Amino acid sequence: MSKCPRWYGLVFLWLGLVFAVPAMAEEEEPLLNVFLKGKNIEQAAESLIQAISSNNYTFVRQQAIDSRLVPANWEAKSVRIIYFCNFDLMSRALALDTHAAEFLPCRITLIETGKGVDLMAVNPAWQSNRLGNYRLHEYCVKMKKDYLTIMNEAAL
Amino acid sequence: MKKLACAIVVLAWGTLAHSAPLTASRTTDLVDAINGVTAAAQNNGYELVKVQPIDQALVKRGYPDPGVRILFIGKSSAMDQAMKTNPKLLSVLPLRITLIVEGKEIMVSSDDLEAWKEMFPDPETARLIESWQSDLKTILSEFSGH
User: Fold this and answer.
1) Is B2 a member of any domain?
2) Partner residue opposite B12 with nearest CB, options A13, A76, A105
3) Which of A145, A40, A137, A67 has its CA nearest to residue A97?
């Protein structure tokens, strides 16, 4: 019926992929960083937990980076992890793709330096870009926005 | 024409290809899988830091069971090495292993560290990431019995 050779279809398919995939795969940095100038790690953790609660997320736990790997009194004082989640978002993301577990629950690593505390989190939108699931990526873009809101609010 | 079609398929594949996490699976139940992964991790110098029962947490709050549980494993030397080599790597520690119930099988997957290697190509960082990848590969192989 069609006079178009079959390979035309393949060309169009490829062009579609070339233009559609990068539309999802916007340039994303692997890490989200916010620096809390002049705070110590205790103050930073407290601010962060408050910001987590005020943004509709649930604080899950905090631990030293080497918790359970060294005796409790040897644990690093300057590096801490805070875990948190939004159960509704977590349920919906996992229903879309169980690979969402790669970035759940949310975690922020706090590193105390002489001048303040560096907050660092893996960017979920960077991770979801690699999974190639457009619908999951939408959730991850929202999560990225939430991470930044929480981290910036903690820095106030 | 065939050559052109092949080239297009290869290009399309390259466009879609995403680096993937390491995976392994075994016919077993969740509890046995957790024990299996923990034992394999310990055989390779890692400790179980935390079992994160996100499946139970969701069910308790009225959500459907996603059949997913997360284990965090670590070793203190990895923390020290990351701190010295590239503190940005601390954000992936402790390492995460995901257990997914798939019928009678448990599929286990690790974080996709290949993408990190691409992001931090300096030799020292790449070497450290490669050593974690190698450890995770061994742990997953031991778990699956291969």
Assistant:
1) no
2) A13
3) A137
What CATH number does the domain containing B72 carry? 3.30.310.70
Domain boundaries, chain A: 28-155
Check whether domain A28-155 has CATH 3.40.50.2000, yes or no: no
A 19-48 residues with CB < 8 A to B: 21, 30-31
Q: At what angle do helices A87-96 and A134-155 cross, to 10 degrees?
A: 150
The answer to whether residue A17 neighbours chain B at the CB level (below 8 Å) is yes
pTM for this one? 0.84
Cα–Cα distances in angstroms (integers) from residue B125 to residues A102, A111, B16, B85, B121, in the given order: 21, 19, 27, 6, 7
- Residue A156 three-state SS: coil
As for the ipTM of the complex, it is 0.84
Residue A121 has what pLDDT? 97
